Amino acid sequence: MNGFQLALRVLRTDGRTRVSAMLIAVGVAVATALLLLLVSLPGATEARADRAAWQQFGTPSEDGASLEFVASEDVAPDGSQIRRVDVAALADPANVDLPPGIDRLPAPGEALLSPALADAVDHTPGSQLGERFGEAAGVLGQDALEYPEQLVALVGHAPGDMPEAASPQDGFNPAGQGADVLLGLLAGVGVVVLTVPSMVLVASAARLIAARRERRLAAFRLAGATPRQVIAMVTAETAIAAAGGALLGWAVSPLLRQAATTVPWGGGTWQASDFVLGVVPSALIVVATPLLVVLAAAFGLRRVLSAPLGAAGGHTPKPLHWWRLVPLPVSGVLFAYLVATAESQLEATLLLAAMMAVIASLTLAGPWFTAVIGGMFVRRWRKPSGLLAGRRLRDDPRGAYRATAGVVLAVFTGTMALTVLSSAEGQAGAPHRYAEGALYVEADYDSLQRIAAGTNDALARYGLDERAVTVGDAFLGDGHAYTRVVDCASAESLLTVDMKGACEGEPGVYTPYPDVSQEKLTIASEHGDPGIPLDADVPVRPMTTTSEYAPEAVIDPRVLPDGFTPSGGSVVVPSTPENVDVVRTALVSAAGGLPVQSRDARLDGQSSQIADLQRITVIGLLAAALLGGCSAAISTAGSVLDRRRTFGALMAAGTPVRVLARALRAEAALPALVATVGAGVAGTLVGIGLFAVVDDGSEVLTPWLAAPVVLGIGVALIASSVCSPALRRVQAEPLADE
Q1: Strands 522-524 and 469-476
Q2: CA atoms within 13 A on the CB side of 180
Q3: What InterPro entries does the database record attribute to this sequence (predicted)?
Q4: Which position among 559, 584, 648, 725 has the lowest Cβ density within 10 Å, counted as fewest Cβ atoms?
């Protein structure tokens, strides 16, 4: 009888082996499905980028250009981001190559809108949204959208109406821009963070029958079976479960991909086709995952092969030594030193190596701390359950800690990421150049008057009292102080300056530096230009700045020298929360494709990206918690079944089941809490160090950092939930069966 036939017979006759095989299959299925999803992420981001490539600037082309192109960002009334693309055909529109999802080029004054934007336009007053784009003449297809909910407008113009920032290019930008680097990096981290707990789940399932399998295989060895026959039997038994699990994971992976399409990233969800993985990588994952499990099972037979008598008779785990703690402070000190000194690429690489050393040292020290906690229970127990739990933790700390080892990596990585993200969110900001609520468009000075006039006409048509103001850019004096060209009253209401009541007098120059000499004042359009002298009688009055981005001086346009023109500037319009969308519509419609900016819009964009990263991190932590909890639960059940004789004898001696269940819950929960809290503290400290390397700001700790504690509690609850059922099964079976 060959190894495969023996494995089938064992699976048919031994119920516990069947349960173990099914759990191994589940673990391999989870690992396979997760790998298929995570490996497909870079391709998914590339598919997104390919669909949206036409929305980006292409290669400028003066000769043979078929269209002028400019792209900008806008904001919808609900705060969603709008991608606006303005084009003007320089040749026959029929000869312009169009990207998928666009059936024609819009004529001047027309716009093609994405379905979501068209729906928003239909349900929003025109003064708040629709009049920004012109006449809606069609809908963009899904192949032209980065994600299904994307708000995109393709607006047509005549060539002479395009802004100066427009780029002549030969058609739209083609696909092939590459994957999202950040999400690709997160996918690589996720492969490790989620696959390791999956493999721990498989290992826990394999250990569910560890003691019984070792006795059975040792009996075969003592009966004359060769090592090759023993390996063949275990390989066949594991391969049946692992191969079935891999096929199950491949079968359910479409459901997991469908669930992944609902997770927002970069402003929206995904198309179902984004996560399609090629045949070759899919086959490699489906084959490699069970192969690794089989190899691990064969490698674990070395004690049975070398010492079958020892395996049959059991063995006492060796005590742990204090040297397991040494790597933890050493790696921590090395990491702290590199944080303080890292400047070169080599030191940055060493910093990452030190971070990995911290993770490894946590895994190495975990069983030692488990043994210490067990010893404390043994010495200071007050109830029998405490003594039983302490003896288990002290005598077999490796086995007690093993189930939570996979969670250590997930908690450490997640807490580190949350610390960095929270600190980055605290440092997020945008230049506070204008007063709160102000919207502005930057352009060359010749365009400013046209944009301001068009904006004011629209504002008057909408019945608003706000008016657009042109603010020029210049440089004043020998020190080339950055100066804004605007009248005093507008400066006080729009810029982040306090004019100190100086607007009551004659127009002049306003600056925080009272020692400026009128005789030496010059004004220049560009930094470094020699400048044109101002009249000697131009008054200089004091002002103060109220933000670090405030100008160093303000000059009234009425005192500019004859012939002086600023090189550029901004059209600025104040707004209130009640009329901001109407003001934006007036400014957008007059800007002709130039981006309308505001501090609030920039802050919203930063917050959205940080929220995406936090969401992905928390999802990964929750998945790791579920996998870790299942591993801990299976390990707990396995430890009960491995100690059937002990528990049966205790029950026969009159020990209540509730006392044994309480002891099992303690020995299952404590390692989980030690692992998660310890990894959480270490991840927070490492996150603070990494943030200090890239930013000089202060760290920000938020309630998100409580996720590891929740993770530990969840793992402990899942692990302890199987104690009572497992003990009842032991109680129901005759002790003589063992």
Answers
A1: antiparallel
A2: 17
A3: ABC3_permease_C
A4: 725
Structure tokens at 361: 């040292």
The 8-class DSSP code of residue 265 comes to B
List helix spans (H) across 532-598.
580-591
Q: Which residue has the tokens 């963070």?
A: 193
Mean pLDDT, residues 205-230: 66
Residues in the chain: 738
Token pair recorded at residue 144: 């032209």
DSSP summary character for residue 321 = P
**Helix axes 15-51 and 3-13, enclosed angle (nearest 10):** 110
End-to-end Cα spacing for the chain: 27
Number of neighbouring beta carbons within 10 Å of residue 713: 15
Domain parsing of the chain, residue ranges: 1-55+177-315, 57-169, 322-430+601-738, 439-597
pLDDT, tens digit (0-9, with 9 covering 90-100), for 41-95: 888 888 888 898 899 888 787 777 888 999 988 999 988 899 999 999 888 888 8
Distance CA 361, CA 355 (A): 10
Distance CA 247, CA 350 (A): 40
**Could you tell me what percentage of the chain is helix, strand and coil, using 3-state DSSP and rounding each to the nearest 5?**
60, 10, 30
Segment 130-167, tens digit of pLDDT: 999 988 889 999 999 999 999 999 999 988 888 878 88
